[in-house]
Specification:
Strand order of the largest sheet: 4-3-5
Number of domains: 2
Radius of gyration: 35 Å
Number of helices: 5
Strand content: 15-25%
Order of helices and strands: HEEHEEHEHEEHE
Shape: globular
Structural class: alpha+beta
Largest sheet: 3 strands, antiparallel
Helix content: 40-55%
C-alpha cells in the first residue's frame, strides 16, 4: 500500500470511529461545518441585500418634464410655415408664434406662414448626413379630445433634415428636438 492509499484508509477508519452526533468530513466536524455553511449563507444573503439596497438607491423615479411653453401643446390645429425655405408643421398657431418670436430675438429670419399645399412643395427630397436627433411628438389623449393632455412620443432620427421631412410628410408636428 502506498502512502496516499494509507492516508485515505486512515481517514476512513477515523470517520467510522466518530462518536454519535459528530461526523467528520474533510477533517471537519459536522457541527463546525454547519457553522461555516451558516456563516457563508449569511455573507451571501448580506451581499444580496446590499446589492438590492444599492439598486434601490441607484434607481430613482424620473421627474416629470417641465413645460417650457405658455401654449397648449395638445391643442391640435396645425399651422404650416417655411423655416429657412424648409417646410415645418406646428401643432397650433400659438406654438408657431412662440417659435417665430424666439427666432426674431435670436436674429434669425422670421417664419413665413403658408398653406399645407404650398409648404409640402418645400420638403427636401434627400437629406445629407447630419447629427442624429431625438424629437418629442405630442400624442392625443385616449379619448381623442382636442386640448386634453395626452402623452409625448419620443422618436430618433438620423438628422434634423430627416426629422423635418418626416414631420412635414406625415403632418406630425414635433414640440422639441435635441442632438443625441
Amino acid at each position: 500500500m502506498d502512502r496516499s492509499q494509507e492516508a485515505f484508509s486512515k481517514s476512513s477508519r477515523q470517520s467510522q470511529q466518530a462518536t454519535p452526533g459528530t461526523c467528520k468530513w474533510f477533517g471537519m466536524d459536522w457541527d463546525l461545518m454547519g457553522w461555516v455553511l451558516g456563516f457563508l449563507s449569511g455573507v451571501a444573503l448580506g451581499a444580496t441585500l446590499v446589492g438590492v439596497a444599492q439598486a434601490i438607491i441607484i434607481i430613482t423615479p424620473t421627474k416629470p418634464v417641465e413645460q417650457t411653453t405658455k401654449c397648449q401643446i395638445y391643442w391640435r390645429k396645425h399651422s404650416w410655415a417655411l423655416e429657412d425655405c424648409v417646410c415645418r408643421v406646428y401643432q397650433n398657431d400659438c406654438l408657431m408664434r412662440e417659435e417665430n418670436d424666439k427666432r426674431e430675438k435670436a436674429g434669425k429670419t422670421p417664419l413665413i406662414p403658408v398653406s399645407e399645399k404650398v409648404c409640402k412643395k418645400f420638403i427636401k427630397a434627400k437629406c445629407l448626413l447630419g447629427w442624429p436627433v431625438v424629437a418629442k411628438f405630442p400624442v392625443p389623449s385616449p379619448c381623442g379630445c382636442n386640448g386634453k393632455p395626452g402623452s409625448l412620443e419620443i422618436k430618433k432620427f438620423k438628422s434634423l433634415c430627416e426629422l423635418q421631412k418626416y414631420a412635414a410628410e406625415c403632418s406630425k408636428p414635433y414640440i422639441s428636438y435635441s442632438k443625441c
